[in-house]
Amino acid sequence: MEIPNQYIKNLYRIMLVFLVILSLFFAVKLLAEFRSYSVMDSSDANTITLFGHGEIYTVPDIANFYFTIKKEAKTVKEAQNKVAEIEKKVLDFFKSKNIADKDIKTVNTSFNPKYNYVRTPCPQVETSGVSGGVSYDCGGSKQALIGYEASESITVKVRNTDDVGSITQGLGATGVSDLSGPNFTIDNEDSLKAEARKKAIDNAREKAKALAKDLGVKLGKIANFSENGGYGGPVYYAKDAMMTEGGNVASAPAEIPKGENMISSDVTITYEIK
């Protein structure tokens, strides 16, 4: 029995449609698998980021002072000469304390005119019932130059912190003003910063190991690293503690507590996981 040609053509069409549908099905499935693989292999999915903190405490080895010498006189030269006299006393005092010239620095010098406002007497207006009349402002005041003020600001670094108490007292006795300090700091802190950074890295590494264990993965190489360093230290003695309300110098203690300064490091480490 011979099969009609029309039947064969219809069968071919059905098979072709079936093959097209089957191909589309496998294409969609393959694309989904590819996208899933890409997500799993992305940098966001195969890394973990941890933060670490490290601190180092140490006794400061230097103290910084800041002060100003101010004097007034009729002329600029006279005011500057008065400042120079006080400055010589200060430098002689520093020399007696074995403070090197390199640790003394002038940061500002200036002179400014000083004025006084003089009011011109105004005539009194006679008012009925008021004895002596009534005074009023007739706008006759004027500015008069009365002299000059010269000033010089100096910073000093004290390396022998045991002398801080006597230096504080001695500076006040020389006639300086606006005395600030001591500010206790560390002269060379690079090695301490490195030590604090190592502690921060160890802290982040331990956190990463613990997290990897909990996740059931293993740590790979470091993908990224960054650091933010910090420095802090208390100031135990300041101007308000050295001056009385009248501006006179109060007695400074023989020793001023230095306390401890903190140097810290904060790191961020990103590990690959596998």
Average pLDDT: 79
Strand content: 25-35%
Order of helices and strands: HEEHEEHEHEHE
Quaternary organisation of the protein chains = single chain
- How many domains? 2
Strand order of the largest sheet: 3-4-2-5
CATH topology of the largest domain: the name is Alpha-Beta Plaits
The CATH class of the largest domain: Alpha Beta
User: What spatial form do the alpha-carbon principal axes imply?
Assistant: elongated
Provide the low-confidence segments as ranges: 34-43, 233-250
Q: How would a crystallographer describe the biggest sheet?
A: 4 strands, antiparallel
Q: Would you tell me the structural class of the helices and strands?
A: alpha+beta
CATH architecture name of the largest domain: 2-Layer Sandwich
Radius of gyration: 41 Å
* CATH homologous superfamily designation of the largest domain: Protein of unknown function (DUF541), domain 2
Number of strands: 7
Helix percentage: 25-40%
Q: First CA to last CA: what distance?
A: 67 Å
Number of helices, where a helix is a run of at least 4 consecutive DSSP H or I residues: 5
Keywords, separated by commas or semicolons:
single chain, 274 residues, alpha+beta, Translation Initiation Factor IF3, Alpha-Beta Plaits, 2 domains, 4-stranded antiparallel beta sheet, elongated
Topology:
Elements: H1 5-40, E1 47-58, E2 62-73, H2 76-96, E3 104-118, E4 142-158, H3 164-174, E5 177-185, H4 190-215, E6 219-232, H5 239-242, E7 261-273
Antiparallel strand pairs: 1-7, 2-4, 2-5, 3-4, 6-7
Helix pairs in contact: 2-3
